[in-house]
Amino acid sequence: MAGKRSRTSTKSSNAILEMDQNSKKAPVHVQVNQQSTTQLEPSNTADEVDQPYLAKKSKAADKTKKPSPTKHNRTNKNNLCLDETVSLLDNQQADSASSPMVQNDDALQSNDTQGSSSNKADMLSRFSKLKSMRIESQKLNRKEVHFEFSRHKQTSKESMAHERKLKEAQELQAKTAAEATNTDYDRVKNLTYTIDDVERWEEKLSQKEARKDHGFSDYAQIAAKKYSKMIADIKPDLTKYRQQANIASMTHGSSDGTQEIVSEDAFYRSAHSLSYANHSAAPDELAVDRLVKDIEKQRAQRGQFSRRRAFDDEDEVTYINERNMRFNKKISRAYDKYTADIKANFERGTAL
């Protein structure tokens, strides 16, 4: 009997443990009341346990076992604890943060009071430096403006006159230095010239003598002088001229359209030659442009030489000299509107 009771007790304890584990694993939890009693289903095994003994054991186990809270209740309690701890930490951090801010404000106020004087001094020094730099830049800009204005105002003639005066001053200084040392200034000056300089100077003098106007001689001489002046600026292309001469010496077009070889003398025609220029002797575009530019240049020069006449040939002469002409014009501006009728009557012969 005792062996049976021991086996039944172990089985009942195992059954209780299995029930407890199943209750933990199950998704739905059932709250156990202390007054309720669990009834075990009868087992169909060979070793049956009597019902009164199992009921007593289950009552004893229920009395010793306390009801455990559900998972939902545990999570709610944990959340409440966490909220309380977080609120406490926030309050502590706010207190700790407020105290350094107050200290920092005090430190900043003290630093501002100490650094205000130094900042003012630095700003004043910087302002003074900037003011001096501004004044200096204004002076330099004004100086550059005056220099640029004087440079643009100075014309080419003034610059040439300035260079000539500078050269004369240098020459006078060299002459005084030569006289102080008892040396011939002309000899020293001539020794500085080269052969090329002397040749250019002699050619310049000869051209000046040729351009000199010796008075009217005849029209042929004037035409020759004009022609020489016009061709003075023309620079012939000798290589192209020789090429044309070689081509003309080898081929020459006849009247029937055939080509025949002729001598080189056909290219160099004289004044008594009867041959006339053909289509192959037409000038190129560069030569035509050069001729047009030369004609425009001659027109511009003639326009500069023409003067406005001092009087009109068709106008009525009422003066004996230029002074009398200006006086008559002044009188006309003042009294012509009154004397126009009298003057017309004198001209018609009907004046009283």
Automatic annotation (TrEMBL):
Q: Where is the composition biased (Basic residues)?
A: 66-75
Disordered, as annotated region: 1-121
| Main localization (coarse) | nucleus
Start-end of Polar residues biased regions: 31-46, 88-120
Q: Which UniProt keywords apply?
A: mRNA processing, mRNA splicing, Nucleus, Spliceosome
* Listed GO CC annotations: catalytic step 2 spliceosome; post-mRNA release spliceosomal complex; Prp19 complex
Task: Give the UniProt record's GO annotations in the biological process aspect.
Answer: mRNA splicing, via spliceosome
The membrane-spanning stretches of this chain are none
Key word Nucleus present: yes
Q: Which residues form a coiled coil?
A: none
> Where in the cell?
Nucleus
Its quaternary organisation is: May be part of a spliceosome complex.
**UniProt function note:** Involved in pre-mRNA splicing.
Instruction: Spell out the PANTHER family in the cross-references.
Output: GCIP-INTERACTING PROTEIN P29, PRE-MRNA-SPLICING FACTOR SYF2
Q: Family, per the entry?
A: Belongs to the SYF2 family.
The protein's name is Pre-mRNA-splicing factor SYF2
Organism field: Batrachochytrium dendrobatidis (strain JEL423)
